[in-house]
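Quick illustration, no need to memorize.
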Amino acid sequence: QVQLVESGGGLVQPGGSLRLSCAASGFSFSSYAMRWYRQAPGKERELVAHIGGVGGIKTYADSVKGRFAIFRDNSKNTVYLQMNSLKPEDTAVYYCNRYQSNYWGQGTQVTVSS
């Protein structure tokens, strides 16, 4: 069955960096676009970044443009989110999602605080 497993979250100081990973299994990974979402306490889940199946198309939320980068390694069935210049408002649970599906990982907590 389809599985998405996120990792790489943690506590980081403002201005720091983290790299999130999402390991996928149970489907032909390279055939699907993938997305990262996040949900902060008391807020709705929001789209952070999108990447096409072969990685050519990438889009970002305005709030993370220039700071975050999404990329994928289809040989490892993994999609990544490189997060730089982190801000306290980036604090959230981050989820990966197979585009146009209801498949989600369990989420990984990112906390940006001094």
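The beta strands are 3-7, 10-12, 18-25, 34-39, 46-51, 58-60, 68-73, 78-83, 92-98, 108-112.
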